[in-house]
Design goal:
- By secondary structure, the chain is α+β, with helices and mostly antiparallel strands.
- The chain has helices spanning about 20-35, 35-40, 50-65, 110-125, 140-150, and strands at about 15, 70-75, 80-85, 95-105, 130-135, 155-160, 165-175.
- Strand 6 and strand 7 form a beta hairpin.
Length: about 180
């Protein structure tokens, strides 16, 4: 049996540093607003009223952290498809961490999150990093299932540092 050629090629997805331009912050606010279930679980924002000033302040804090970076994922037409916050080296384990990876809520279950996670993994693989970590909120079973499906493994359970929420620490070997 022969495989049919893919008649719908995957559109490109590229990562760009957040410049904090007002239009970019507005795009991130819209992306955040498209994920109300996450924000209900996380408790950081009222999903019905996500304020641009708070989003900008939070993202500036992420970017200002030593080794911190906020990246926007854009599709081939330049539309915002996702956002990812990275930490190059965690002060306790020296590994890179994903602080947040979020795709547009209207694009969930399309493979976009998988592609975005793959871009992040490839970036750190290219830097010859041995592994990468993240923390999933215990009250977010969908996120746990997503990361587990990508080969990430639970290595610890503890409270997150920023908000004292119960989390599952996950690790993926990149070698």
């Amino acid at each position: 049996m022969f495989a049919r050629p893919d008649t719908h090629p995957t559109p490109p997805l590229t990562l760009h540093p957040l410049t904090f331009a007002p239009d970019e912050i507005g795009e991130v606010v819209a992306l955040y607003a498209s994920n109300p279930a996450y924000w209900r679980a996380a408790g950081e924002y009222d999903p019905r009223d996500i304020q641009a000033a708070k989003v900008e302040a939070d993202l500036r804090g992420e970017a200002a952290t030593e080794g911190g970076e906020v990246l926007l994922a854009r599709d081939g037409e330049g539309r915002l498809a996702g956002v990812v916050c990275l930490l190059d080296r965690h002060p306790k384990d020296g590994l890179p961490w994903i602080g947040l990876l979020m795709v547009d809520g209207h694009s969930r279950r399309t493979g976009l999150g998988r592609r975005l996670a793959g871009l992040v993994e490839e970036r750190f693989r290219a830097e010859q990093r041995s592994g990468i970590r993240l923390a999933v909120l215990e009250n977010n079973p969908d996120a746990l299932a997503f990361w587990s499906s990508l080969g990430w493994q639970e290595i610890d359970r503890r409270q997150d540092l920023a908000h004292d929420r119960p989390c599952i620490v996950m690790h993926k070997h990149l070698a």
